[in-house]
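Course assignment 3, question 2. Fill in each field.
Student: A.L.
Task: Predict the tertiary structure for the chain below.
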Amino acid sequence: MTTEPLPLLPHPDPLYAGLASVARQEAGRFAERNLRVRRSAVVHAVRMVPWVAGLTLPAPACGQGWSGAGGGELHPVAESVNCGHCLASAQARAAAAAGDLGSQPPLPFPAS
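Answer field:
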């Protein structure tokens, strides 16, 4: 039995194209920004998390959950991170330092 590569479709799958467009738009909204969940006073660092079909979306770097429809619940802000979990989490610090979206603003960590 031989396996041949599947032929490429002349047009991309419209569902995937729509999902990819949403993922690009959301990533663009959070480029060089931190995030706030709804009207909370807490500002989180951003990291990209798996979504669907191999795509990713921005989310709080500390893993803070939220309920609701998703993207509309998260708001990009240019304020400094004040989330205790983001400031204390090595994973969140690594996500912020790595600049998942290009150039995440640095978190104000004390030098140690």
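Instructor remarks: Residues 97-103 have pLDDT under 50 and may be disordered. The radius of gyration is 17 Å.
Grade: pending
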